[in-house]
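Per reviewer request, we include the raw input and output of the structure prediction for the construct analysed in the revised manuscript.
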Amino acid sequence: FASAGHVALRFAAQHPRLLGKLAVLNGSPKFRRSDDWPYGFDDIGIAHFTDAARDNGIAGLTDAVLDPGLVFADIGPDRAAELGSWFRDMSYNAGVATLLGFFDNISLDDDRHLLPAITVPTLVMSSTIGQEVPASVSLYLRRTIPHARLAELPGADHFAFATRPDLVNSLLLSFIDDRPYSADDQ
C-alpha cells in the first residue's frame, strides 16, 4: 500500500526469485512530479506535510495526512471518524521521524527504470478517487510491469484497504488463487 507498495515494487524488481506474486494497492514508482512525470506531489504538496511536522510535530503531520478534505471520501462521517482515530493512534505510535521518512526519503525515489524487471504475476489495485496516487499511475504500472493486471476500485479512496476491505480482500483472494474476480466474490 502506497509507500510500502513502492518498497515492494523495488524489492520485486531487485529480488524476483524471492517472490511468487506481487500485489500493490496505490503504490507508485515515483511520488514527486517532474517534467516527465505529471503524477504525485509537487514541492508545495510535500511542503504542506513537512512544514506541518516541523511546526507542530506528530500532531501537525497526522492532521495533514488525515485531512478530511483528502481522505476517507468514500465512507460516511461516522466510519471516517472511527478510521481516523485508528490511523491517528498508529501515526502517533510511529512518530514524526518515521512519517517524515517518506517525505524526506522515499518521495525522492524514481524507480520507473526497475519496473520491467518485475517478472512475477502482479496485481495492481487502484483507487479511483484517491488523490495521493492518481489512477493514472496504476495504469502506468500495468503497462510497464510485464505480467501485471490492473483492478480499479471504483469510488474508492486512497485508504481502500480500510474503507473497502471486502473488495480489496476479494481481489487479493482471486489473485492468490489465480482465478478471475467476479462480483459474486464480495
